[in-house]
Design a protein that fits this description.
By secondary structure, the chain is mainly α. Helices cover 75% and strands 1% of the residues. The chain has a two-stranded antiparallel sheet with strand order 1-2. A hairpin with a 2-residue loop joins strand 1 and strand 2. Helix 3 runs antiparallel to helix 12 and helix 14 crosses helix 15. Bound molecules: phenylalanine. Phenylalanine (PHE) binds next to helix 1, helix 2, helix 5, helix 10 and helix 14. The site of phenylalanine has 16 residues, from helix 1, helix 2, helix 5, helix 10 and helix 14.
Length: 457
């Protein structure tokens, strides 16, 4: 029997895939991208990217994983023996690993926020007398994040938790946990959305988020929206290839891709509806807010409006930590599956080989928010550089390779068999999906990538 982590039930598979997709990308990264890229215009382009490009590319990844039946490199090897296509899988593994380095750090922040909500420290007035609530929460945030030691401790806790879960209990631990906690996160988001919308001046925030100014759609907005769409759907990093290799033969890929995409859009949309009314209501739109502060400094102000604010706050950050961990284990699983399948390591050795170096790499990312923030490359801190290069450059390149392979190199029957479960389903959308994978996706993604270089982003 393979030692690889396996999910037991069909529902568990969907929960795990949704768990991988729904994470910091939709909750933390999305509002920040909306804020700095034109509000509703970004939302619109983002949704278009998910439906027009994201779903077809997701189907391509699922198909390669289920047909190839192995890790990202192994699946390409099995499907195209003796060819260099395995390099596309190798790029995916590298991208996913780089993402893991900074994703662990942000997951550590959420964990710290959960802890500080429970202890009440987050809501204690600042001794030095911050002028108002938002100043107080911003101060708290920089206290937590730009400190050198605290974020590191929490990042290490998250890495250790990943290690334990991946070693012992993907099935019993994370599958069961996400089955219960993910639906609860959805309900909680609905409740917070209700609170946010009832704040004074909420409508201005809703307008910023929902009323598009089409002139704001610039090439850079499109690049960012595409990066966000692919990041939030966990595309181009081998995660879906690896997970799909655990899919049973009767899993309906098209249906699964819709469940995943709609969950991701739902969470992102709810987050926008929570954050932006709060931003306008608390008069924060004029402050030079940068992305990360939205969830960590703005949201606690919403919780403050509620009775038992500490409880809501702790719950929110607990769910966010869980959502982050269901994502990190999926990203780590890409490299672990590779180590097991290609390097013939035991599960235990693979887990340690993949996770131990992160203690060093994530430390660098974490410190680049603190005492190493003056170290910049191309004007970006190491943390921002990892984020930018992976989401906006490596990920699109990986996705183009995937589309070219499935659309042009592999036998057409392969994709069709996967989408129709060897002909037992009728998939009317097959032709349109194939058309997108062959022509639209690679050309559009390449165009966007090239224009990002021309714009010198
Ligand atoms: N989709 C996850 C999120 O939105 C991040 C992720 C990226 C997970 C790549 C797996 C692979 O947080």
């Amino acid at each position: 029997m393979s030692e690889k982590a396996q999910f037991k039930t069909k529902l568990g598979l969907i929960a795990a895939t949704v768990g991988s997709a729904v994470g910091l990308g939709s909750v933390w990264r999305f509002p920040s991208e909306v804020q700095s890229n034109g509000g509703a215009a970004f939302l619109l382009v983002y949704i278009a990217c998910v439906f027009i490009l994201g779903i077809p590319v997701m189907l391509a990844e699922f198909s390669i994983g289920r047909a190839g039946g192995s890790d990202a490199v192994g699946s390409f090897r099995n499907l195209a023996p003796g060819k260099k296509w395995w390099l596309a899988g190798a790029l995916a593994i590298l991208t996913s690993y780089l993402i893991l380095c900074y994703y662990m750090v942000v997951a550590g922040w959420t964990f710290e926020y959960m802890w500080q909500s429970i202890t009440g420290h987050l809501y204690e007035p600042i001794a030095t007398g911050a002028s108002d609530l938002s100043a107080q929460f911003s101060t708290r945030m920089s206290e937590y994040i730009t400190d050198d030691i605290n974020p590191l401790i929490h990042t290490y806790i998250i890495i250790a938790l990943n290690l334990v879960i991946l070693l012992f209990g993907v099935q019993k631990g994370i599958e069961r946990l996400s089955n219960i906690l993910m639906p609860m996160l959805f309900v909680l988001l609905l409740a917070f959305c209700f609170v946010s919308l009832s704040l004074p001046k909420a409508s201005e925030g809703v307008e910023f988020f929902l009323k598009p100014d089409f002139s704001a759609i610039t090439p850079s907005v499109v690049i960012r929206a595409l990066g966000q769409a692919f990041f939030s759907l966990s595309l181009g990093m081998g995660v879906l290839i690896t997970y799909a290799s655990y899919f049973p033969k009767d899993t309906r890929l098209i249906k699964t891709s819709f469940s995943v995409s709609t969950s991701v859009i739902f969470v992102a949309f709810m987050m926008g509806m929570i954050i932006f009314p709060a931003v306008t209501s608390f008069g924060l739109q004029d402050r030079a807010l940068n992305g990360p502060t939205l969830v960590f400094a703005t949201l606690p102000q919403v919780f403050e409006q509620l009775p038992y604010s500490q409880l809501w706050s702790a719950l929110f950050f607990l769910f966010l930590t869980v959502a982050a961990i269901t994502s990190t284990i999926s990203i780590a699983e890409v490299s672990i599956a590779f180590m097991q399948d290609r390097c013939h390591m035991s599960r235990k050795a693979a887990c340690f080989t993949v996770l131990l170096p992160l203690f060093v790499l994530s430390t660098i990312c974490s410190l680049s928010q603190g005492s190493m923030s003056s170290v910049t490359i191309c004007g970006m801190t190491i943390f921002d550089l990892f984020d930018y290069v992976t989401a906006n450059i490596m990920l699109p390149i990986g996705s183009i390779l995937l589309c070219v392979y499935l659309g042009w190199v592999a036998k057409k029957q392969l994709f069709k068999d996967q989408l129709t479960n060897n002909g037992s389903l009728t998939a009317h959308s097959y032709r349109i999906v194939l058309f997108i994978v062959r022509y639209i996706a690679p050309i559009l993604i390449a165009g966007i990538l090239i224009s990002s270089f021309i714009n010198n982003e």
